[in-house]
Every structure is written in C-alpha cells, then in structure tokens.
From TrEMBL:
This is Dihydroorotate dehydrogenase. The gene is pyrD. It is an enzyme of class 1 (oxidoreductase). It comes from Microbulbifer pacificus. Homodimer. It holds the Pfam family DHO_dh.
Length: 314
C-alpha cells in the first residue's frame, strides 16, 4: 500500500490540516457560505474582505466567467466588520483556523478595525487587503510603496494577531525589490500573492458590448490566464522576503498540479478563487486528492519536501 502523504502546513505558528483554502472574494460573504467552507476539506476559513460598514458593492452584472477564468468588479460587497468579527465564535465549531480579511476604505478604517481585533481569541490571523482593484476612486495601496509603508507603520502599532497582506500582482522586476524592501521592515506573518490582475476588459463581440456593468466594463482578471503571473510573484517574494514571512499562493489554481507548482515556487499554502466560484466546496477535496497523488508519485511525504525547491536552468 502506498504511504500516506500529509498536506498539512503552518503559517506563523497557525496549523492547517490542509494547505488548500479559499481566496477572499467568492462565496465567503455570508455566515452560510463561511459555514460551507467550514464543513468542507478547506484547511482554513477566510472571510470576504470587510469594510468598517456594510457595503452593497458595485452594480450588477459584476462577475462574468470565461472559458479561461473570470472578470469581476464586485466592489467589496460585504456585511461589515462587526458581522465577520461576530462570525468568529461560530467558526469555532469547525476546528480549523478562521482568518479575517479586512479592506478599509481609508488608512484610518484599517487601523480602527485592527484595534478592534486586538485579543480576539477566535481569530487565527488577519489578511489585510492592499489590492482590491474595484472600488471606484480608490487606488490599490499595494501599487504605492510609500502608502503601503505608511499604512503598515500605523497598523503594526496596534496589531496583536498574526497579520499578513494580500498583494496585487507586480510585473516589473524593480517593483518586486521596492515592495519587498517595505515588507521586510515589518513583522508580517505572510503575504498572499496575488489578487486579480486589474484592470482587464472582457468584451462580447456578438453584442459589441462589455460583459460587466461597473467602471465601463473594467475589472479584475482571475483564472488560468493569471497563473504565470501568480507563480512569478510567489517565486519572487519567496526569494526576496525574510524567511519568517510565509508566502500564500493565489491565482490560476484549478487542479492539484497548479497547487503543486505554487508550492514548488515557495508557497506555504494555496488559495482557490475562480475555481471555487465555479465548482463550489468540492474543489478543496478534489484538488487535495490530486495534489496528494502527485506527491505520492514523486515520493514527497509532506509539502516541505518540495516547497520552494524550484530548479533553475543556470
Ligand atoms: C471585490 O470585492 O471587488 C473583489 C475583492 C478584491 O479584489 O480584493
């Protein structure tokens, strides 16, 4: 009989029985959706990014699926900070980490939410979203290195839980160095690479129209198309960041092979977004099974056996 493999991982001392869980975005807005993740094989429950107040988000249609992925301009529809804080005690029933994503509309909102999270024992970690491309008039903080530094400086005066940031994708090599120089100055638990690629445009040539309503059709691109960009970001930050900052891969994961590639580039855990939206919670068990089979074939007993060990040709 083949030896069992373990998909367990740990992020900043928080143990996950599976390295696969949901991306903050699809199907994690309501308590019922979060319960479904809790009842699945996902290794953690990650909430929709909370703003201080409840938000309806952008006008619909605001999500569109294509054969290669998706475009969205949701605009952070969410139930508001208090709702996701209250959910934490309900999440206890699932015996897996509950991670709260926050995305304040201002630095002050982020600081206020971080202060309110101090000492919340049912919350395993905070993912601070620096990269939503969909709120009209609000640039992505992660593309402004000085703003990112200013925000982290304030946040780390108050944070008491493990805190990570969700980054936008970077494309230019000097930008990786510049952002890494900022991130390495703070005791981050993790960085999540990457949010959707903003701002793309999908059109329907038949109707000669855009496919989503907000922002004249512009929105964040997810799915197969973004995997090479996501892998590049995971790899670059894995090599540039302090070794105690874990990398969480996100982007283009729809199979065990995709998750394997993220881990090979250095990811300690892998989030699933577009494919979760498409398939529902069974994606966590299916992708776990596929990843386990690949590991078994290659003789890897656990993810640390191959994590970050990508070979180069030079
Ligand atoms: C959204 O709600 O617009 C998507 C969340 C994100 O991209 O951060």
């Amino acid at each position: 009989m083949a030896a069992a493999v373990s998909l367990a991982t740990s992020i900043a001392g928080v143990s996950l029985s599976s390295c696969l869980y949901n991306a903050s975005g699809p199907l994690c807005t309501t308590a019922e959706e979060l319960d479904a993740i809790g009842n699945s094989e996902a290794g953690a429950i990650l909430s929709k990014s909370a703003t201080l107040e409840k938000r309806a988000g952008n006008p619909e249609p605001r999500y569109f699926e294509t054969p290669w992925g998706s475009i969205n301009s949701m605009g952070l529809p969410n139930e508001g900070f208090q709702y996701y804080l209250d959910y934490a005690s309900r999440a206890e029933a699932f015996a897996k980490p509950y991670i709260m994503s926050i995305s304040g509309l201002s630095h002050q909102d982020n600081v206020d939410m971080i202060k309110a999270l101090a000492g919340q024992k049912h919350i395993a970690a905070i993912e601070l979203n620096l990269s939503c491309p969909n709120v009209p008039g609000k640039p992505q903080t992660g593309y402004d290195f000085e703003q990112s530094r200013a925000l982290l400086q304030r946040v780390f005066e108050h944070v008491s839980l493990p805190l990570g940031v969700k980054l936008p994708p970077y494309f230019d090599l000097p930008h990786f160095d510049m952002m890494a120089a900022v991130l390495n100055d703070y005791p981050l638990a993790f960085v999540t690479c990457v949010n959707s690629i903003g701002n793309g445009l999908v059109i329907d040539p038949e109707s000669e129209s855009v496919v989503i309503k907000p922002k004249s059709g512009f929105g964040g691109i997810g799915g197969d198309f973004i995997k090479p960009t996501a892998l590049a970001n995971v790899r670059k930050f894995y090599t540039l960041l302090n070794k105690d900052i874990a990398i969480i891969g996100c982007g283009g994961v729809k199979s065990g092979l995709d998750a394997f590639e993220h881990i090979l580039c250095g990811a300690s855990a892998v989030q699933i977004g577009t494919q979760f939206m498409r398939e529902g919670t069974t994606c966590f068990s299916r992708i776990a099974r596929e990843l386990g089979e690949i590991m078994q074939q290659k003789g890897y007993a656990d993810i640390t056996s191959f994590q970050g060990k990508l070979r180069s040709l030079d």
